[in-house]
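> tool_call: predict_assembly(chains=two)
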Amino acid sequence: MTAEQATASPAGSAWRDAWRPFWRRFRRNRAAVAGLIILAAIALIAAGADVLRPGDPFRLAGQPFAPPFGAFLFGTDSLGRDVAAGMVHGARTSLLIGLVATVAAVLLGTLIGGVAGYYGGWLDDLLMRVTEIFQTIPFFIFAILLVAILKPSIGSIVFAIAIVSWPGVARLVRGEFLSLRGREYVQASIVMGMPDARVIFLQILPNALSPIIVTGSLMIATAILTESALAFLGLSDPNVMSWGFQIGSGRTHLRTAWWVCTFPGLAIVLTALAINLVGEGLNDALNPRLRDR
Amino acid sequence: MSLAAQRTRYVLRRLLQAVPILLAIVVINFLLLQLAEGDAADVLAGEAGSATPEYMAALRAKFGLDQPLALQLLAYAKNAALLDLGYSFRHDTAVATLIAGRLGPTLLLMLSAMAIALVVGTLLGVLAATGLNTWRDNVITVLALVAYATPLFWIGLMLIVVFSINAGWFPVSGMENVAAFHSGWDRVVDVARHLVLPAITLSLFYLALYARLMRASMLEQSGMDYVTTARAKGLTETRITARHVVRNALLPVVTMAGVQMGNLVGGSVVVESVFGWPGLGLLAFESLFARDLNLLMGIFLLSACLVVVVNLVVDIVYALLDPRIELR
């Protein structure tokens, strides 16, 4: 109900009425609030990367293998690149790819799952078969192959992550649509002669939004982890700094310079953890009845 | 219908259901081939330049690259069905042979990781559920959350720093100390020592998942009627937990583990390349570096098939073991 009101008049008082109880329930989960604060800090650092560490993060900043907490906060790597500079610029890459890939995957999954759940019948069978196949394929190797064939770039990485992430959303949305389609208000809209697209987008979708938002928020963390693993294996955009790339380039000097791998890895853990905490908080706030699960 | 006949029907049916999935995987592989730069022969030959013109011509003829796309797909599917995945010029060996040689270590790693994840994960889940909302439960929950958020390759590298480089307990990489020429029991011990860190690394994510799943499952089961009955009978809480609740709570965990067995293939790429474990994953990593796309596609095809087969076996074994599961 609240989501529907919110879309009806996004700027009016209905929006505030929906927002207040949401925020009250979200705030009750202290871990989620902590996650939100961490995430906001990381986003700020990413946004201010050019101010915090101006210049190209690939630039040689000093002596190679300078230890951390000296002239350089997190030391330098084998080529004398500033690890901290790489990390602040890498934050941008991680957040950007995680967000864009997830949005793409959620849109694709919602479209496929929505059509399957709304129309049912052979279309549903066909689409669910395709979804199943995509779920069976080992997703990480598929992503590797896609990026390797398309040549690593921000675009190909986003594409690959989106392609391997949509099936979960499709199944979820299909389930929601199947159950919502039988509701009276949806039946009434159909009988009134409302076009399918309007029923789908204006009647059913707003009511299926909360589980989609929760799943999507958790998917961002997975997308960031996948992106970092791809970059670690050498599949990163050569012009863009990323945490996975830093760890991948530091691994051969693990014995002499542990810090090159350690700090960017901590950044990944912190980001993914914060996103997961926020996702659970969203779950609590959007599905209050499921809290005990 | 007798139970035996029902079971045979079920197994046959599941086998049939796997066929379209395998076909789809071949089609996807074929489409990826079309996406790559140059024509399929360039990719199959492992980047132009390393193959002789005669071989390229032979490849083009074999895959009928002047034919319509549908016929090309047919030729590709035929070759895949015959396990003819082409030739890797970097390794100077047929792709199928290369993959077959690497399958063993990967399976060893995957099975060990799954065993660790299941045993430790369920144990932690039981500990958390029996000490609900105590420090035990909280510590396990926090650890699980962190494990979810940690990239496998990074935790692998950190384990190497701590346990191999600083403590010197475990070897840094590889599957065995080839130079030592161990044989018999010594070799088993040697491989086991090499296995510890990669298996733990690969298991961590699933361990966390099963701990949480087991905890939730235990809590669900403990509200069931049979638990009340057992309590009314005068059984001790320990006995109720050990004999009744845990057994029933295990079911969803084992199901999940069966489904996820295949996903371990993906994780093993990263873990094997961190630890130099000579399996399919390391082969995939090497083929990435050599830009040996054909080999990479062969690995993808085979690992996807591996997932289908593993899922099939798990499903069938599972259905045969648990009489409550409907054979549909």
